[in-house]
Design a protein that fits this description.
Blueprint: H1 3-14, H2 20-31, H3 35-44, E1 55-60, E2 63-69, E3 74-79, H4 86-101, E4 105-110, H5 116-129
Parallel strand pairs: 3-4
Antiparallel strand pairs: 1-2, 2-3
Length: about 140
């Protein structure tokens, strides 16, 4: 991945103009995480899997992504029952299209797949299918 793309990813996370209400919503989502989100967060926080830094409830282009990793340029979305209706699916599709337009790949997980085995395998598969990169101030992606 070229430095221009890396710079864009860092910019995405650090220098966004975020509306106050969206920031409040992200904070609320962190405080009121679903059980599945809590499981995933405990598995990936503090660089526990492949030394990757993850952010939870990251705001991207006005959307709140469950988990975002700038090293991989990946979003993990945990889809529970609230995502099982037409309007939620349309909203999720729009969000995925916006993320895709930014070069961010979205992976959706069902609540029942939020365990250590599935999460570790998914992240390992993502790493194995993406070109790895290093850069100034960024950690290398390496095995756990």
């Amino acid at each position: 991945m070229g430095n221009e793309k890396q710079d864009a990813m860092v910019h995405l996370v650090r220098n966004q103009n975020i509306k106050r209400d969206k920031l409040g919503l992200a904070k609320q989502f962190r405080k009121e995480a679903t059980p599945s989100e809590n499981i995933v967060w405990q598995l990936i926080r503090n660089r526990k899997i492949h030394n990757l830094k993850w952010r939870r409830q990251q705001i991207i282009e006005g959307f709140v992504a469950d988990f975002y990793c700038s090293d991989l340029n990946v979003v993990l979305e945990i889809d529970g029952e609230v995502h099982d209706n037409d309007s939620a699916r349309e909203y999720d599709q729009l969000r995925t299209e916006i993320f895709d337009s930014l070069g961010i790949k979205t992976y959706r997980l069902k609540n029942e797949d939020c365990d250590e085995e599935h999460i570790t395998k998914l992240i390992t598969d993502i790493i194995n299918n993406l070109p790895l990169h290093t850069g100034e101030g960024r950690g290398e992606v390496r095995g756990s």
